[in-house]
C-alpha cells in the first residue's frame, strides 16, 4: 500500500513539474517556478531564453523575402506584451540573426574568406540591443511598445551609419493593403501591422478570460481579423503604361570591376540585342556603376533615345542622363553604404579598417566616396542608386522636385548567392507606392524589374544572368498624401508612446 502511495506521489510531482514548465513557456504563470527544484528552475530559465529567441525567428520569417507576411502579427502578439530588456535582447538576436543571415553568406562567398562573417556578429548584437531598449522602456505597456518600435525604425534611417532594415511594414509588401503607404509611407504600414497584433492580443486575452463569442472582446477580435484579411484581399486596378523602356542586366562580377575589367562592350552588345527586338523603347536603363565611359558606337545605336546609366567616376557613385552623345544631367548618390562606400570614424578605427581591407583582398587603401549634394531628377527621371532604395525620404524628395517616374540603378551582385538581393528588391517596391510613381529597376545581376504605382511587379527577368527586359511604364504627375505630408505616421507613433506610458496597465491574465 505504501509503495502504491509513493508511486502516486511521484506521478503527481512529475506532472506538476511538467505543467509548471509548460506554463512558464507559455507565460501563464509568473511565479510557478519558485517552488520547483533547482534543476527545473534552470530549465525554466532556459525556456525563457528560447521563447523570445524563437518568436524573433518566426517574426523574421514573416518579412521579405518570404511570402509569409500574413503571419507576421502572430509572434508580435506575444512580443508586444512579454518581458523587458532581456526578453527584447533575445528576441532581437533571433530576429536579426535570421533577417540578416545573407551578410555572412554573401561576404564569405564573395571574398573567399571566413573573415567575411565577422561583421555580422556585432551588427546583430547592436540591433538586438536596440530592441532590448524598446522592450525595457515598455514593460507591461504594449501600446507604448508599438509606438517605440516605429520610432526606432525611423531613427535607424538617420545619420551616416543608418541601416533601415527589418521594418514591420514590409510584411505587407505582397498584400494589396500596401497601398496604405501612399498615405503615410512605410511607417504607417509598420503601425498597421503592430496595431493589428496589439488588438488581436488584447481582445484575445479578454476573450480567453471570458469566453463569450458574442461579446465586446469577441466583436473586437473579429473586426481586427477582418481588417487584416481585407488588407490581403482588396482588389487593385491595373494601370497600363504608354511609354516603353529597355532595362539591361550585365551580370558583371563586382570584384572584377574593382580590378578595372571593362564592362562597356557587354552593355553595348546587350543593348544592341535588346533594341533589335524592341525598337519601340524610348529609354534605355543601365545599372549602378555600369561603365566608366561611353563607347563611340553608343550614340548611333541609341539614336534619339535617352540613356539613364550608372557611371563609375572613382570618387562619386553617379547616375547620368545621356542623350545625343552627351551627358546632359548628373546625380550623385547621397545615401552612402556605411563601411562600404563611407568609412565613419576613420581615425579611431584605422587598424580595424586596415585589417579587413587586407582580409577581403583589397591591396590598396579604400577611401570614402564623395557624397551627393541634393535630390535633383534627371529630366523626368527620379534616378537614385542602390542603397538609397530603402530610404523613403530619397524617392519622396525626388518626386517633390519634379520626378515623374522613379529609376533605380543597383549593383546587388555584392549579395552573392544569398537572398539579400531579393530582400533589397522587395523593400524597394514600397517606394513606388509611397510616391505614386512607376519604378524602373535595373540591376547588375538583378533584380531587374518594372513596378507599377501600386507596388505590383509587372515585368521581371531572372537574377544572376546577363539579359535585358522590355516593358511599359508611364510618366505621372500629382502627389500622394505621403509625398505632401511626409512621415506624419512617426508623430502618431510618438503619441502612442505617450498615451501608452501614461495608461495604467491592466493586471496580467495568469
Kindly describe this structure.
With 510 residues, this protein is α/β, with parallel strands linked by helices. The protein has 4 domains: 1-36; 41-235 and 490-502; 243-335 and 375-473, Carbon-nitrogen hydrolase (Nitrilase/N-carbamoyl-D-aminoacid amidohydrolase), CATH 3.60.110.10; 337-370, no CATH class. The chain is built from 17 helices and 11 strands. The chain has helices spanning 2-26, 38-60, 73-79, 85-99, 102-111, 120-137, 142-155, 181-209, 216-233, 254-258, 264-277, 298-302, 346-359, 392-400, 420-435, 481-485, 488-502; strands at 243-249, 283-285, 306-312, 317-323, 326-332, 381-385, 405-410, 439-443, 449-451, 457-460, 467-473. The strands form 2 sheets. It has a 6-stranded mixed sheet with strand order 5-4-3-2-1-11, with helices on one face. Strands 6-7-8-9-10 form a 5-stranded mixed sheet, with helices on one face. Helix 15 links the parallel strand 7 (405-410) and strand 8 (439-443).
Largest sheet: 6 strands, mixed
- Fraction of residues in helices? 40-55%
SSE order, one letter for each helix or strand: HHHHHHHHHEHHEHEEEHEHEHEEEEHH
Terminal CA distance: 38 Å
Q: Which spans have pLDDT < 50 for at least 5 consecutive residues? A: 1-37
| Domain module count | 4
Using the CA coordinates, give the radius of gyration: 26 Å
Total count of helical runs of at least 4 residues: 17
Principal-axes shape call: globular
Beta-strand residue fraction:
5-15%
Total beta strand runs: 11
Global mean pLDDT: 89
Structural class: alpha/beta
Provide the spatial order of strands within the biggest beta sheet: 5-4-3-2-1-11
